[in-house]
Write a structure and sequence with these properties.
Blueprint: H1 6-22, E1 24-27, E2 32-35, E3 38-42, E4 45-49, E5 61-62, H2 63-68, H3 71-80, H4 83-100, E6 112-113, E7 132-133, H5 134-138, H6 140-152, H7 155-171, E8 184-185, E9 201-203, H8 204-220, H9 224-241, E10 252-254, E11 272-273, H10 274-291, H11 298-312, E12 324-325, H12 349-366, E13 371-375, E14 386-388, E15 399-406, E16 409-411, E17 414-415, E18 420-422, E19 432-438
Antiparallel strand pairs: 1-2, 3-4, 5-6, 7-8, 9-10, 11-12, 13-19, 14-18, 15-16, 15-19, 17-18
Helix pairs in contact: 1-3, 3-4, 3-6, 6-7, 7-8, 8-9, 8-10, 10-11, 10-12
Length: 440
C-alpha cells in the first residue's frame, strides 16, 4: 500500500494462499472456520495440529491464535478485494460469535475453548476454564477488525468494534489498585491475579495498545470515556513503564509497588521487546495528531520511542528487527525464541504495522503532508465496486483524496471527502494510485 511494488503484493497474496490452503479448516456443519495451530512436518508427512501446543494454552484453542490468523489476509483484502478472504473473515467471526462470545449478562469474549466440544467452561481447560483476558477482547481491533471495517464500511464491524472498546473501558481500568489495567478475569469479570506467569503483573505494551486503539475508535464513534481513558494511560505510563534514563519501554512489571518501594519492579529481567516499542510510538503519534500537545507532550514521547527503536532494534548489517534488547539497547542474543528475528511469537506483523501506521500518523496527522497509497483490486473483487482508501480510522474530515491514477492514467471517478474510488469494470486487476492530502 505504501510503495506499489509488485514484489510486496505478490508476497502478501502468496502468503494468504498458503494460509488458506494449509492452515484453514471449514466446518460445514456449523458454517464456521477455524485456523490450525500449526503443521508438524516429518519428511514427506504433514500432520495438522488443531489445539495449541504452547504451555500457556496447551490442548486448547486460544482466541488470540484465531484472531491473528486474520491479520495478514485482511490487510491483503484491503488491497485486492479477493472475496474469498472476506468469506474467511466472516466465517471466523461466526466462530467468535458462536463459541467465544459470552452471551450471558457478563458479556465479553472467552480466552480459550476446549477443542472437541468448543466449550469455554470445560474442566479440561484447567486454569483457562471460563476465563477472559485482554487478548480475547482487545486484539480483534488491531489484528483484523479495523481493516475489515475500512475495507467494507459495514455497520456490523463498526458495532463489533464499539462492543469491544466499551468492554475494555468498562472492565479493565483498575486505578484504585494500580496505574496499569487489569488484564485477566474470571467469567464474571472478577480479577484473576493468580494465573500462570502473569499473577498480578502488567504487560506495559498492552496499556499503550489500549490508548492507541481507543483513539482510533474515537474517530469512528466519539465518546468522552474513550479519550479520557486513552489520555490517562498515555500520561501515566512514562513514569511507571518506561526507562527514564536510557529510553525505551519495559516488558512486564509488577502492577503494585511493595511497601517502601517507589517504582514498579520489572519481572524476570529489564529487557525491552520490539512490539512494546511499537505500541508506544503509535499511541503517542495518534494522540499528538488528534489532540495536539497542549496538555501533554505526546509528540516528544513518540519521537523518543522512535529514536530508541531505530537506534537499537534494527539490524542494519543483516536486516530485520531484533526481538529483544538489553536495558542499554544491545541486542539480546543469549538463547531461546528471543534470540531470533522470527518465531511463533514474532513475525512481520508488528514491524510492518509500525512502519505503515507511523508513516500515516506522522504525515497525515502531525506534519500535514500528502501520502500516496497503492491498491490492486481484482475484477469484481469488491462487491459494490467501491474501493475504500482510508489508511486508518482517522478523525472525520482530516484527510481527502487529492488525485487518483489507474494504470498510470488520471482517473476522476472518486469521492474526495468519503475517501472512496468507484472502480471501472475490467477483466483484469488494475493498479490504483491514490494521493491523500491532509485537510487544514
Amino acid at each position: 500500500m505504501k510503495t506499489g511494488e509488485e514484489r510486496f503484493i505478490e508476497a502478501a497474496v502468496k502468503g494468504t494462499e498458503y494460509l488458506r490452503e494449509l492452515m484453514r479448516f471449514v466446518d460445514q456443519d456449523e458454517v464456521i472456520l477455524y485456523w490450525y495451530h500449526g503443521i508438524d512436518v516429518e519428511g514427506d508427512r504433514e500432520q495438522k495440529i488443531f489445539a495449541s501446543e504452547f504451555g500457556d494454552d496447551y490442548d486448547a484453542i486460544p482466541a488470540y491464535e484465531q484472531i491473528y490468523a486474520l491479520a495478514g489476509p485482511t490487510q491483503t483484502y484491503r488491497v485486492t478485494g479477493d472475496p474469498r478472504i472476506l468469506n474467511d473473515a466472516e466465517q471466523t467471526i461466526k466462530l467468535f460469535d458462536k463459541f467465544f462470545l459470552d452471551k450471558s449478562e457478563n458479556g465479553g469474549y472467552f480466552s480459550h475453548l476446549e477443542p472437541v466440544m468448543l466449550d469455554p467452561r470445560s474442566e479440561s481447560l484447567g486454569a483457562n476454564k471460563g476465563t477472559k483476558n485482554w487478548n480475547s477482547v482487545g486484539d480483534h481491533a488491531p489484528a483484523y477488525l479495523v481493516n475489515l471495517f475500512l475495507a467494507t464500511g459495514r455497520q456490523e464491524y463498526a458495532d463489533m468494534l464499539e462492543y469491544t472498546f466499551d468492554t475494555i473501558e468498562q472492565r479493565m481500568p483498575d486505578f484504585d489498585e494500580s496505574p496499569f489495567v487489569q488484564e485477566r478475569f474470571f467469567e464474571d469479570w472478577s480479577k484473576d491475579q493468580t494465573w500462570g506467569w502473569q499473577q498480578n503483573r502488567a504487560v506495559v505494551g498492552h496499556n499503550l495498545k489500549i490508548a492507541w486503539n481507543l483513539m482510533r475508535m474515537q474517530s469512528l464513534k466519539p465518546k468522552d470515556k474513550y479519550v479520557s481513558l486513552a489520555e490517562k494511560l498515555a500520561q501515566t505510563m512514562p513514569l511507571v513503564g518506561s526507562d527514564q534514563q536510557r529510553g525505551g519501554w519495559y516488558d512486564v512489571v509488577e502492577r503494585k509497588t511493595a511497601l517502601g518501594q517507589d517504582f514498579h519492579r520489572v519481572v524476570w529481567h529489564d529487557r525491552k521487546a520490539w512490539w512494546q516499542q511499537e505500541q508506544a510510538i503509535l499511541a503517542y503519534l495518534i494522540l499528538s495528531g488528534c489532540l495536539g500537545d497542549e496538555k501533554f507532550d505526546y509528540l516528544r514521547h513518540a519521537r523518543e520511542a522512535s529514536a530508541f527503536y531505530n537506534a537499537w532494534f534494527l539490524d542494519t548489517s543483516d536486516g530485520g528487527v531484533y526481538f529483544n534488547v538489553l536495558a542499554n539497547g544491545l541486542p539480546y542474543l543469549a538463547g531461546g525464541n528471543e534470540r531470533g528475528k522470527g518465531s511463533h511469537s514474532m513475525s512481520g506483523y508488528h514491524s510492518t504495522e509500525l512502519c505503515y501506521l507511523a508513516a500515516v500518523y506522522t504525515n497525515l496527522l502531525v506534519k500535514k503532508q500528502p501520502m500516496d497509497f497503492y491498491f490492486k483490486p481484482q475484477p469484481n473483487g469488491f462487491a459494490d465496486g467501491i474501493l475504500r482508501v482510508s489508511p486508518d480510522i482517522l478523525p472525520p474530515g482530516s484527510v481527502k483524496i487529492g488525485s487518483v491514477e489507474i494504470d498510470g492514467k488520471a482517473y476522476d471517478n472518486f469521492d474526495a471527502d468519503a475517501l472512496t474510488v468507484s472502480l471501472p469494470e475490467t477483466d483484469e486487476a488494475v493498479k490504483v494510485k491514490v494521493r491523500l492530502e491532509a485537510v487544514g
